[in-house]
């Protein structure tokens, strides 16, 4: 408590009030305390002063300015600054708390001031305390990169040296910025988009060499502080091992001492940081809650964060199994709030590995475990954007990595040098060609006028620069700079659309069979290499802050620009297309079977570009390579595969939070769906979210999302179709979907899968197999029409599809869709039809589309006594009837969900499958078949028969189709003539005998008999 020595009474009273506020002393206890701290000759005079009111009345800002004029922190410590501030503040009466707090923070040094503002202290006392702590941490190395042993706890016998757990502070003059939100990772797609637009990854401003962000950030992580004194915490925990985690592990950055890998815990994919700066292992509290991990009560543990602050972790998750790419890790983890990762593996795990080889440049490590060794396969580094209240993360700006130069042979280089002019910068307008861009407006459209935007000050100079360059060169071709694009949305709405056909990428790739050498050319700002029609030039007018301008070349952003450009490219390369050239807008692919051919082809393409004054971007071209990236695919002589960069973007895609984000993810994965077996079945829970008012994320959607990400990492290389050889289609169907594989010489060319609707699932096996054939043929019509192909199916009767004489209506409907095709159908046993069998027979993630709440049903089954007993038997491996198995915590019988016979869900299921739209009050057999395809319980068939018999609607509207039971009487044929007036039972019909008749109908029944037969044999036939 402050001691009064006779000077500055009001300042002392102010400091005492702050002391009481911090210590929680209230009421009468306030007046008991000061008498013990009076010293000096003026002490008796202070006894009569009342604590609370101060001597000088401060008037708002005047009082604040008065303190500020008297107070300068300069090079003093924060404690001295606090003492001086309290002395001056004590002389002001009734100055608002917020004014004092703001004045105190303004007087701090810049780095402390910014950090305190980020933490948003609630009171002046808290702000003072935070400032003192941060200043003390800084003076002892708490906010600096230090390798010294200044902390007394680090000299203990249990301390294990690690890399520094704190991160260096950036420039002291840096201003802090950024507020609220959640940590957000920049995916590869976002990085690529920003890089293509020349936007800074951190500030979204224009990036150029030497660029500096307007607002820099301090690399420090701020967390809620513990109210107890930090010195007391250090004393209380001095006997424990120091538990530390680096700042970068919390923030989500990847400095040189950390690497990231994608692993799994309990089937859930997690992002793991291998951090040599963390002393122990940590798991995010969100992961603990999601997986329901058990937290052992081992007491609270204080964790020192990278900025010197402390965080409390309660309990330990013991024996957590973490599945790494090539091994399993069983470790204990401390639950902690982790901003940029799900799991942190620290020194506690790393030191168990023994000797290892670590390459920090490639972020890869190799270690040995007995006779086995594991290799870390890290993902690409994730950037983290500051979006969390109380967290501040520094992002270093970085330029795009320059790929290593491709090796070009001397022969190819000679061809390039001979046509070097096509890679130069054009100096004027493009020539007049037959293809000039026209803007045709709807009749009666008035002139388009759009009010210009208010541009940020930082962009005005760039706009002037770009306009000046285009005035000089007619178009902007500088790489790495801003791309000039006018907002033509209003003009596009009034423009008549050009329906020029754009090439289909799959059709382009189908032309590459047999090619082994590839070259890719990219045109420089291709749109600007086409002139505008003179009469349409005024329509391109735009305004900036310094004037009006018109485009003489085709600008970016016009609705028909793509069609005009593709039309020009098709015209220019028409003699070469599909021979050795493919063109998709500005991307030109030259392909050849041999190097000799390729040199000729390259020279021909270069000459076409020269003749038409089209210019290529040398930096984006590659020549005479065994494989190239083209239109999102990797093409080579072995076939076509997905681009790893696109696959990585899918794997790193965050869980969608909006319908638009989900649509983006499905659009990216759907682009490669022909590479994925069972894509439709896997993506079904996600595509259901696209329906109107159906977006509601669930665990089932998360599971499908993770599974789709996982399968995208294992997409195969598909063979390129050879139209000189026979195509083979293998098809299969199950109760849930159909699947097919298009093959050539045993190699897959494409996969197809389709989830059946509710009505289609009710069809017979034969009809579903036929449907699979028809859908597959229609899917691959461009490959099959006009040539003979082979169809393989595991339905033997389909071999005679085209030879059957008596067919049903459905058979005629589906068979008619195959008219015009030439094919043979052969039988292939199901056990040999593994690929398509997997496409069709895997159940979708929902059992049916009926109104039953399956989630609630599954929860009820967990508490069912009979089901619990079955689970225990299956887990212990006890004897059970064949067909039972445990899958995902549910008991299945031949793939069907097992219910307790007394379950309340059985009547609900019956009403859905019998009374509902799907059922239509069907009979016993059909109702049983529908329900048996989904669920099973003991005595199922008899229960369904009973419930159908008790159905009121069926009893009122249906009648029995069976004769009533009665005694059947047989008569001797010798009595026929006397009793019924019939002729002798022997009738002159070859091979037939009149055997019996009924009294009511007088109808005679004839049964064929084999020769020889006699009267006695005929008589026996009656009985």
Report on the biggest sheet.
7 strands, mixed
- SS-derived structural category: alpha+beta
Fourth CATH level, the homologous superfamily of the largest domain: Reverse transcriptase/Diguanylate cyclase domain
Total domains = 7
Separation, N- and C-terminal Cα atoms:
119 Å
Order of strands in the sheet with most strands:
3-4-9-5-8-7-6
Indicate the mean pLDDT: 70
| Number of distinct helices | 36
Number of strands: 34
The shape, in one word, is: globular
Q: Which spans have pLDDT < 50 for at least 5 consecutive residues?
A: 39-62, 142-184, 216-242, 247-257, 370-402, 474-481, 841-850, 976-995
Mind telling me the C-alpha Rg? Answer: 41 Å
The CATH architecture classification of the largest domain is 2-Layer Sandwich
Relative helix content: 25-40%
CATH topology of the largest domain: Alpha-Beta Plaits
Strand content: 15-25%
The first-level CATH class of the largest domain is given as: Alpha Beta
Domain Reverse transcriptase: 439-635
Pfam family, one: RT_RNaseH_2
Biased composition (Polar residues): 139-153
GO molecular function: endonuclease activity; peptidase activity; RNA-directed DNA polymerase activity
Question: Can you offer a commentary on this structure?
Answer:
- With 1023 residues, this protein is of the alpha+beta class.
- The chain has seven domains: 9-139, no CATH class; 230-382, Acid Proteases (Cathepsin D, subunit A, domain 1); 421-450 and 461-626, Reverse transcriptase/Diguanylate cyclase domain (Alpha-Beta Plaits), CATH 3.30.70; 642-712, Alpha-Beta Plaits, CATH 3.30.70; 728-841, Nucleotidyltransferase, domain 5, CATH 3.30.420.10; 854-957, Endonuclease III, domain 1 (Orthogonal Bundle), CATH 1.10.340; 973-1020, no CATH class.
- The strands form ten sheets. The chain has a seven-stranded mixed β-sheet.
- Strand 22 and strand 23 form a beta hairpin.
- Helix 6 packs parallel to helix 8 and helix 32 crosses helix 33 (940-949).
- The termini are far apart.
- Mean pLDDT is 70; it is low at 39-62, 142-184, 216-242, 247-257, 370-402, 474-481, 841-850 and 976-995.
